[in-house]
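tool_log.txt
---
The assistant was asked to compare two proteins side by side. It first ran the structure predictor on the initial sequence, then on the second. Raw inputs and outputs are pasted verbatim so the downstream comparison step can read them without reformatting.
(1)
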Amino acid sequence: MRKILLLPMFLFFSFTGFAQIEGPTTVQQNHNLLSGLDAPNEGVGIKGGVNFSRVHGSDKDNLGDVSGHTNFHAGVFAQFALTEFFSIQPEVLYSRTGYERNDSTFRFNYFDVPVLAVFNISDNFSVHLGPQVGLMIASKEDGSEIDLGPYNTFSYGAAAGLEGRINRFRLGARYVHGLADLRKEDDAGNSIDQDIKNGVIQVYIGIGF
């Protein structure tokens, strides 16, 4: 478990460390012009907010009467400017998703790593697009741990969203469309090809430094 917890932080600090050891390129010289609270696409920070998750896919109806699940996400981000218009933003997030079925709550805890292209429409508004990978670290039914064995613990998908910025504060919304099947085995341990995937709407607030 300790190795699993250290993996997302290693990825995040690898991103930030790479930016710091790079030579004095033209892009980095321009960072001086983009630094501070007035920078529209540069910096590091923390963020957190609400997850509105649902499952999707052609086999979703096989689960029966299924509804969405509301929980939270939180983590850190680093944004690296390439031009005044464009930047790259990696994040490391702890995120809880799931669904409700027959009065039971199924919850899945992930460490997610989105790597987003950020397009600044203005100094205070941007569009985010990019891939996301994740690692499921726990699964629960009504608060009790259940076996991770039947689930695909590695997930991947695509994220898209909008973000507004006022001084050091950021407010945004994002949709993450899962592309990996949630389960790989049935309860008896038999391999299955079940088209049921996660989908999450995230609404968040962030603080940059």
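(2)
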Amino acid sequence: MAHTSAPQQRSMAVPLTAFAVGAVVAVLLGVLGKAHDPTLSGTTTLGFSTVLAMKTVLSVVIGVLAVGQVVGALWLYGKLGIAAPSWLGSAHRVSGTVALLLAVFVGYHCLWSLGLESGTYGHGEKVPTRTVVHGVLGCVVFGAIVVKVVAVRSKRAPGWFLPLAGGLLFALLIAVVLTSAGWYLTEKGWPS
């Protein structure tokens, strides 16, 4: 009997497990966001006028880094038609790590200071649909981060898994940025 080749060793168990764990992470964050009493205690503004202003600026940076990640990945995989410079792989990893760290920082501030809002606020006003969508997508982003990290690290996953995980994370990040920073910039302008 012939020895099994590498493509046959690729396993659907890797993406299925990653998506399952990512879903659990997203749900747990949502549960935490609903159960936690929002507070500004334990947050920082990094010198901005409010936590929302700080999150807006960092979210814009995350959005720019996410676009850079997609361009970098396309370039590294030869999809732009020009050879990638030798430093691009390192720059791609560093900028991805920075985007991840900033996303964790902003996500913490969202969940801790605002929670996951739905229904009505304490004073009876209806929570806007944009706020609900942003909160749910924010939780899902962290599930997608789990999936992406598994995709990057796995040597046994099918070839489609990494581009799918990266594309999903990119789309979710951009949706979260647009439903937060995009809204803030439209309503209030650039924060001070």
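---
observation on (2): Residues 134 and 179 are 6 Å apart (CA to CA). Helices lie at 6-9, 13-35, 51-76, 88-113, 129-153, 161-188.
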